[in-house]
Amino acid sequence: MPFGMWTLLAKSFRTQLTKIFGYNDESARDITHKAKAKYKEIISELPEFEKGDRFKMNLVNCAMIGAFILSMPQRPEMDSLTDYYAKSMMTTPMQWFCRKSGKSKFTAKDIAAMKATAALKAADRNPYSWNMEFYEYPDGSGYEGRFTQCGICVLMKELGLYDLTPALCHLDYTMSEAGGVTDFVRQYTIASGGPYCDCGYKKKSFCNDTYVTNAKCSIVEQLGGVVYFKHNSAAVNELVMGRRQRRSGQKRRIQAKESEQWMGNQWL
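RESULT FIELD:
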């Protein structure tokens, strides 16, 4: 897998060096050449992942971006690195993979696989893997994988790049969007100092308001038109309630106007 991923993605990583960071073609080729050697070095020092561990590709991708960062003449800023990693990763084959995965999201097979991953607890034996807990939302709107150990965090620390790890975390939003069936919601990441990484996948039919999606909050209950959030989000709740009240008021005014028109017509 590691060298197959290099073959698949290296050209995209090189192209984005020019588009995002402004390196000329010669510099981009030189960075890519150095990154390939560094990538091989990083991969050679990683342990084998056990059968059934679905996160090997995540760590391979981390090794690739880490190798490119360490091969750049200047350390990138967080915002530009976030953009670089997302655009480098989202090649045509990767977008196809995301759409294919989206088609099976929330199926019995998908949920069984998530439960099996939670039970595996691979990071107990391999520090470069992940431990997670699995929670289905009580309203049937989706589920959450809650990660308490993260292999990317471990590797990025070893590479001296831990402060840049959030740029990698953001790819979860990009891949969810590419899948086309979920809104990705998150409250914490370990890399940003949180107690865990929550990866929430909401069915789009349950989270289709832009102000809810942009808030990046996990909705856990939806009763009587009121959206309840998982964390301290009184301001967001107030925003939602205010939006719904305004919509309700607009609806009442429209109904009243229609009623007046109807009654007026009866006297004609």
